[in-house]
């Protein structure tokens, strides 16, 4: 009898916990319903309209996609779009990784200043930042003036792919730093000290201890920056030239200048599908298990 009484007392809280979990699962849909409705109206519906137009204008069929893949210029621009996005991602990673590491190593006050420096660009219009880069990168701009002052030859930066990468990297750098910092702040820096105490050099301790633990942040930041870079329009249009044209510029030209919604929609759908394929290929890397040491 005593055993049954104990079992019944232990069973009641478990049943109540199961009921609460089922209730929360039932209410979860209503919690996310407003966000889902907003996504459907603002993203899903326009995307469906653009996709439909890509097949229906000027007439039903695959002629818009046949035109896209049958025009060498379009394929060249698509390849260039992915290449520029990859370069921008690499530049952001090289510049953002040390910055995020410093954010985890300094004190609270200095960390607040560094976070503020990351967030300040969000308060300035992208057009204003791009125009500032036009002033800096032009042939008679600040950078080339400094080069002439120190006896170096001026460098062609404006209307080049290099200028586009620099301008896009500056805009997208916060999207790399923040995911890196969110992962790095959970890594216990005493693991590096332990590796050093076991005879590892600083470079080896970083490569075998710290870097693997920070890879989830690298993957997250790289995916975010790469996807955002694929759709850039203003920065390539102002800083780039004919040889640095990205697919977004062609889409704008087809839709707004030529009023050809069918071909513009086909370009957008091709870019979207190519992005999804790339994400599917990168997903296994981001799902790799990485053990992180938490600070105490």
Structure report:
It is a single chain. This protein is an all-alpha fold and 296 residues long. The protein is built from twelve helices and no strands. Helix 7 crosses helix 9, helix 8 runs antiparallel to helix 9 and helix 11 (247-257) runs antiparallel to helix 12. The two termini are 46 Å apart.
* Rg from Cα: 26 Å
Give the helix level as a range of percent. over 70%
Uncertain runs: 291-296
How many distinct helices?
A: 12
Shape: globular
Alpha-beta content class: mainly alpha
Beta strand % = under 5%
Give the termini distance in whole angstroms.
46 Å
Total number of strands: 0
Could you provide a short overview of the structure?
Helices cover 79% and strands 0% of the residues. The chain has twelve helices and no strands.
